[in-house]
Fold this sequence. Notes:
The complex is a heterotrimer of chains A (711), B (156) and C (282).
Chain A: H1 13-17, E1 33-39, E2 45-51, E3 60-62, E4 87-88, E5 94-100, H2 103-112, E6 114-119, H3 126-131, E7 144-151, H4 154-160, E8 163-171, E9 183-189, E10 192-197, H5 202-213, E11 220-224, H6 239-252, E12 256-259, H7 262-268, E13 275-283, E14 289-301, H8 307-316, E15 326-335, H9 349-367, H10 371-377, H11 398-409, H12 411-416, H13 418-423, E16 426-437, H14 443-448, E17 451-456, E18 462-465, H15 475-487, E19 494-495, H16 515-532, E20 539-544, E21 553-554, E22 559-560, E23 565-577, E24 584-594, H17 601-620, E25 626-627, E26 630-631, E27 651-654, H18 672-675, H19 677-689, E28 695-696, H20 700-709
Parallel strand pairs in A: 1-12, 8-28, 10-11, 14-15, 18-19, 24-27
Antiparallel strand pairs in A: 1-5, 2-4, 2-6, 3-5, 7-15, 8-13, 9-10, 9-12, 13-14, 16-23, 17-18, 17-20, 21-22, 23-24, 25-26
Chain B: E1 2-7, E2 10-15, H1 22-29, E3 48-51, E4 54-57, E5 70-72, H2 74-77, H3 81-93, H4 102-115, H5 121-127, H6 139-151
Parallel strand pairs in B: 1-5
Antiparallel strand pairs in B: 1-2, 3-4, 3-5
Helix pairs in contact in B: 3-6
Chain C: E1 4-5, H1 10-19, E2 22-25, H2 31-34, E3 48-51, E4 61-63, E5 67-71, H3 76-81, H4 87-94, H5 99-102, H6 107-113, H7 121-126, E6 130-135, E7 138-143, H8 144-147, E8 148-150, E9 153-154, E10 161-168, E11 174-180, E12 191-199, E13 204-212, E14 219-220, H9 222-231, H10 236-250, H11 261-280
Parallel strand pairs in C: 1-3, 2-3
Antiparallel strand pairs in C: 4-5, 5-10, 6-7, 6-10, 8-9, 11-12, 12-13, 13-14
Amino acid sequence: MVNIGDSVKRFDFDDKVQGRAVYTADLWVEDRIYAKIFRSTRQRARIVAIHLPKLPEGYEILDYHHIPGTNRVPIVYDDQPFLAEDTVNYYGEPILVVVGKDRDVLRRIMSEIMVDYEDIAPISSIEESILNPQGYKFADGSNKIEYTFTKGNPDIHMEGGEKSFVDSFNTGYQEHAYLETQSITCRVEDGNIIVHGSMQCPYYVVEGMKKAFDLDESRVRVIQQPTGGGFGGKEDYPSIPAVLCALAAIRTGKPVQLVYDRKEDIIASTKRHPSDISIKSYLDESNKITAMDIDIKLDGGAYAGLSSVVLQRTMFSSTGVYNIENLRVKGGAYATNNVVSSAFRGFGGPQSAFAIEMHMENIALALGLDPLEFKKKHFLRDGDLSCTQGKFLNGIKLDEISASINETSGYSLKRRSSEKDKELLKGIGFSIFAHGCGFTGAGESEVLKPKVRLVKYSDGTLEIFVSSSEIGQGTQTTLGKIVAHELGVPLERIVHKYPDSKFCPDSGPTVASRTILIVGGMLQQCAIEMKARWDEEEIEIIRTYKSPKELSWDNEKFIGNAYPEYSWGANVVEVHMDPATYQVEVDKIWTVFDIGTPIDLKIVQGQIEGGLAQGLGYGLMEEFRIRDGVPMQNSLTTYVIPSSKDFPQPEIRLIENPRKYGPFGGSGLGELPTVGVAPAIASAVQNALGKKVSRIPVTPEYIKELIDNGN
Amino acid sequence: MEINFTLNGKRVSISTEPTRRLLDILRDDLGLTGTKEGCGEGECGSCAVLLDGRLVNSCMVPAFAMEDKEVLTIEGFREHQRFKAISKGFEKAGSVQCGFCTPGFVMAAEALLRQNPHPTEREISEAIEGNLCRCTGYNMIVEGILTASREGDGLW
Amino acid sequence: MVTTYCPETLSEALEIREKESTMIFAGGTDLMVKYKSTSGALPQFPKDILYIGNLQELKEISITGEWIKIGSMVKLSTLLEERRLPDYIKIPVKGIGSPSIRNLGTMGGNICNASPAGDTLPMLYALDVAIELSSAKGTRKVGIQDFIKGPGKTDIKPNEIMTGIFIKRTEFNRWGYRKVGARKANAISKLSVFCTAQIDQSSVRDIRISFGSVGPTVIRNREIEKEIVQIGVARLKQELGGILEAYADMLSPISDVRSTKDYRKDVSLNILKEIIEGDLIL
């Protein structure tokens, strides 16, 4: 009996290893012409005049006037223009599209375009926005998106509490640094727009096209090509290069390629939200936290876009895996004249996990308690409600997870003996965390309404039609396995191509750790139905999502199930520090995850190891700083991501805990490994140094600061 | 400028601007798109090819430096026995996710194993230090190369 | 569109240098980045190019009784494979870039680029290397500390080509080198410290100490080195504080995208202390 988790050869393996996979920039080498985006070199300014050079024949320059429909990116808040109108609001904002055949000529034209700007005083940070709320606002007239929710009776408990502890934390930007930059190609055929691109969400691009060109869906076709990494950076963002590429294709009647240079991609594409999070906890005589007051501030950048959703997740993740009965969570995503912050693996989760895990550890240390034991005292248990008073549909295995990781890593023992290790600057850190899988609240059933299509052909092959995008996470393979296993057919009979909006229904975006849980779950239901009708020669089944009846959500008060399901994990990281250089050396990493039934063990391992590396980069070395409105890091030389020599291979253990509503019991995994590792490493450094670490990345320069300044 | 060099075992003659990057010659002039552009500044290794048997970033090599050289790209290498061993190693170890960096890593593996058929994990890690990957965290790639060197014993 | 000259011999190359206004292109690992354009477009070189990659005369490493001569076009990877070269020359080279960078890059290029963060430079300054420059009119040698004039600036004349790097063969029985970057591989240097010495039982016969990325050019001070020779082995440890203070006054790092001046200064001195206590005094 073959276990679904047993690894198979990935569907996309051969093409990728042989260099045959056709990424977007590999298309139409013979016929294409090129589009380049001309961008703002000011942080915030009025565009007074644009002086264009004389253009050779066959070259065009396009601006927002050429957009026939609505010049706004449709993504939750429709506030960002595809091309700037009278003002620019962040350095790198797109103003013009230059199109033509020869890239040397395009480069020359771009260098000859002159813009007369009239600078406007920018708002460059959360602090500046708070001090001057009129300074810069989102399109709805406010300088921030804000929410508050409560649970229990926070006010009563905050007055009467025995002791209280307060901490403030700060996290910085993170850049996705996918190896393939934003890439789109587009052509017009019989009045229809056909887009091939590097993307996570073909239907978001369809929406962008409809809006910008005032078109009906039938006139737009979007096809995802093999995509060289996404991590959230190709969730909503590709709509912009896609529309600009399409604009060029429509105007010239030629197939157009628009591929970002690395510098352009780093400067202008979306980033992880920087955060300032403060937590105040009130404890009773038995050292149990009775109430928490949490304040979250995110830097949303120049346009609101997805910030409301990221803010919500940051808020819903703010109490981590702890049962806090009395709670107030306040959150704001601020408008600043910085690059737009948007989706990035974890989507607010990593920011919250850092804050809550470090805060819990700090309280434990202040009380002279073992952090793991203190955290354990507050673990959510079966029957407890989440911070939004939602029930957990599946058993909570935090005790098992923490016991398992404590056993393999020896965390508690090592913490106790760490006095002598302080001499050697050794430290060990622990984090435990969860990640909600699926769209927030009732998003799956009320916003996305995802659909899937499964077809059986007369020759016995089966084809999956979903909009889920293979971006390296193994979706093509895992969804295929779910169908094959449910039907009991060999995997070779499954066809699962890259999504094409002409044939694939909208299964929702490839985000939020929802693909296996929701889309895979729906495909399993299709397969079950197909099995019952197996004698039919040709079968087509289309299913829409039905939310489990146990789930409910009040979107006004934020009460109920913030997410359809959760995955859980813990990390322990052992480090030592170089006393001369303050560099952190990661000696060992242990991980334990509860992701329900693994659908493919090698794919799971790959996601864990890769997600961990991205989280370690976030925690230790990745810095994207904006000074005077201009990003300081603009290349892969200056934006430093981990190399092959930086981190050891982690130990991985999986907890068995099949999910009631996951396919074969599976749950989400894509984001979880990135969510929780930064606090594990920060607390290891804190342990080694004996100094409070309150921000990430924990660079050697920051460590030196801590040592020099004391606390 | 006319450049004559050997590409994947065949003699080629190209007429091009002397400063044109080898990467663009391969991808745009010759349609060999297996070699990728990840950064254009020699930092990521996605554009790596073998030049006279040595690993180089093709984004750094101008046409004028190509005269009489031998170039091996993924398109040429994938016909070899040794490629099959590397491919098998990568398959077993789960070394491929989004795949964009993969051809560069395959070429780096070949370059290493030519010089050192039985490398240690540390030596592998050093040999690929110029290749960036954002998906895997590298260890499964090191594992893939190690597997290739063991199971492809005798090929290098 | 610039003209590219690809001479086959040194004398051809020198003639071109004499007649035309050119920039010299060796391995290209700095120039192709510095002048890179967008994908598919040509790099934007400001001058005509003189490519010295075909000049066999510049690709030799020769070792005589007194001298090591490294041709300016010797690839970094070739240098690393040269068995006759001592480790203290190789280790700083090993820390440069990555295998693919080292397969193209040259020591000559690293010197002429004259970056304050150039990885070979602290070692070359410490070893008092002489740079050989050739022109159609003859050759001259100049000490590296006089050859490099500032960030990106050297003493090379418009009609000259750097042809060799001359390292005097010296007995060193102790050495230490550390480069600090933002990650463990393929990183631009935040700072580096290089030290070689000849130390016997009781005396410091010779000591060289140099710092990279903490000033516009490499920092090296012969006065302090002479002091250390005076101090000798027995008192070295107790005098260490004074030595570090003396160097502290000389280091003038800046804060930039890579690091802060406080970090660079502090860590450079920490590393020197570590090298002296760890590698030198055994």
